[in-house]
């Protein structure tokens, strides 16, 4: 029972009939090409339909296939083939990516032409067979009503399941059954041909090696951009939230004893909130592929702002900036600023409470150096696998520098060295 169900399964699948439509459409579209070639042959050779030989028909068929294949070389045809194939053939064709608006190379166009010629050629055979089989099946099904006309008897006689000699009474009984069997067998054959077309389609319409490499490069670029935006959010918004949390906690503790300090902390919180809003607007502008004029990219010249924000929350920060930090190349300056931001954020989060934080920035002829150090606190271990430090290390490596971090002699140190940093 399971074997029969499996064999007859294509009859109940909608994909069988959409693939049938795809094949018949190919045959229908083949006809105008064939008529055009016939007209040209008639005008050139002066041969009429009555004088055509088998050789002439073969030449006409080959010329039609070549003309169809040439159509596949036109721009945009391949994209349409993929879209129609994905909609009607399904199966493996659904995995074929859209070629997009890019310019197809010669090999891709040749493959597209071969796919179109194969589709139209096989489709013509299926379309003609569909007309014949549906006509014969209808004729056989109506035998019981029409009284077994001569053409129905001829059809029954040609079937391998029928006896060589079929009488009118036998035709009335066997006709509808034979018509149903004929239709079922033909649908199963069409299902097999359609499944083959769905498997062959990706071979001819799928991306080439160069296109796959281009897709991989685009995907890598997208992932790189996403990672960069994630790092921007982590460094900027994460730092602002850490400072806000520190300042809010400090203000709550000294609100009654030192109202002036609490008021200054609240003002610093408001300033950090505005800064975070500007940073968020900048990142959202990058997501929209546009630059926001209200949030310029930070640089090493803004390090003092980070220090003031950390001091406003009660942290003891010692900052030393040496050299022409304004001469550092913009990309490097932004990344080094983010390193300082990440180091201060980690010091505020994980460093020993009330412990001093040392920030040292130096720019000279050999490059740029940044170092952030603070006494090891209870949360120092949480920084070993942090995404911020890992992202910072990756960005520094891309810039050709070195980043080191870890605990040593009771201090947690984050240091960066980038050679040739001046723009």
UniProtKB/TrEMBL annotation:
<keyword id="KW-0067">ATP-binding</keyword>
<feature type="transmembrane region" description="Helical">
    <location>
        <begin position="20"/>
        <end position="44"/>
    </location>
</feature>
<keyword id="KW-1133">Transmembrane helix</keyword>
<keyword id="KW-0808">Transferase</keyword>
<feature type="transmembrane region" description="Helical">
    <location>
        <begin position="113"/>
        <end position="134"/>
    </location>
</feature>
<keyword id="KW-0812">Transmembrane</keyword>
<feature type="transmembrane region" description="Helical">
    <location>
        <begin position="50"/>
        <end position="74"/>
    </location>
</feature>
<protein>
    <recommendedName>
        <fullName>histidine kinase</fullName>
        <ecNumber>2.7.13.3</ecNumber>
    </recommendedName>
</protein>
<dbReference type="InterPro" id="IPR036890">
    <property type="entry name" value="HATPase_C_sf"/>
</dbReference>
<keyword id="KW-0472">Membrane</keyword>
<keyword id="KW-0418">Kinase</keyword>
<dbReference type="GO" id="GO:0016301">
    <property type="term" value="F:kinase activity"/>
</dbReference>
<dbReference type="Pfam" id="PF07730">
    <property type="entry name" value="HisKA_3"/>
</dbReference>
<dbReference type="InterPro" id="IPR011712">
    <property type="entry name" value="Sig_transdc_His_kin_sub3_dim/P"/>
</dbReference>
<keyword id="KW-0547">Nucleotide-binding</keyword>
<keyword id="KW-0902">Two-component regulatory system</keyword>
<feature type="transmembrane region" description="Helical">
    <location>
        <begin position="173"/>
        <end position="198"/>
    </location>
</feature>
<dbReference type="InterPro" id="IPR050482">
    <property type="entry name" value="Sensor_HK_TwoCompSys"/>
</dbReference>
<feature type="domain" description="Signal transduction histidine kinase subgroup 3 dimerisation and phosphoacceptor">
    <location>
        <begin position="225"/>
        <end position="290"/>
    </location>
</feature>
<feature type="transmembrane region" description="Helical">
    <location>
        <begin position="140"/>
        <end position="161"/>
    </location>
</feature>
<keyword id="KW-0597">Phosphoprotein</keyword>
